[in-house]
Amino acid sequence: MMNDTPRPIHELVDFLYSLGTADVDHTGHDFLTHLRAVSDLLAEHGNDAELVAAGLYHSIYGTEHFQDFSLPLSEREQVRSLIGERAERTAWLNCVMDRATFDSAVSHALAGESTLSVNDREGSPPIVVSIEELRDLATVHLFDWLEQVERSELGWDYRRGAYREMATFVGAEALYADVFAREPASTGR
């Protein structure tokens, strides 16, 4: 069985740097700066080492909206050896998921349902997730958005209701409120 403990953070960052992530633009920063900021935010709010590592690698394979960097899925085993099974699965799910079905799964979980799945954005069969996996995914996905919402061209209203539900689901309502309290009045809210 593979060790689920991520390697030291400096090794994880060094690997990302070696891939050229510091040379890729992402929401007003470079991609590596964003990845580190998501990871740091997760750590600051008491998340465990596996989720912190998942946050650092949350979009390593590209996502529905971010394709400026995409490590091939054939490299999953190497990433798994660096960050551990749980962190890599969380990062992989964040990369391959169709966001509309993910939002729906969070809503269903809040309604008490326990049979949950998300669709792969490429059209593969639905991916069954446990409530714990969905909570990990929602945590990383929410913290990713909270780190960049102020700089994102998608704007403050992008999936606002879904992010609010994620905050409720993972117990991050206070952080969500703190970040959204910084929303400029000019956005109409």
Portion of residues in beta strands equals 5-15%
- Counting DSSP H or I runs of 4 or more residues, the number of helices is 9
Number of strands: 4
CATH topology: Hypothetical protein af1432
Biggest sheet statistics: 2 strands, antiparallel
Q: What's the CATH class, please?
A: Mainly Alpha
Cα-atom Rg, whole angstroms? 16 Å
Tally of distinct domains: 1
Estimate percent helicity.
40-55%
Global morphology: globular
Cα distance spanning the termini: 50 Å
Provide the CATH architecture: Orthogonal Bundle
Q: Return the string of H and E elements.
A: HEEHHHHHEEHHH
Mean pLDDT: 93
Strand order of the largest sheet: 1-2
Question: Which class best fits the helix and strand makeup?
Answer: mainly alpha
Can you tell me the residue ranges where pLDDT is under 50 for at least 5 consecutive residues?
Answer: none
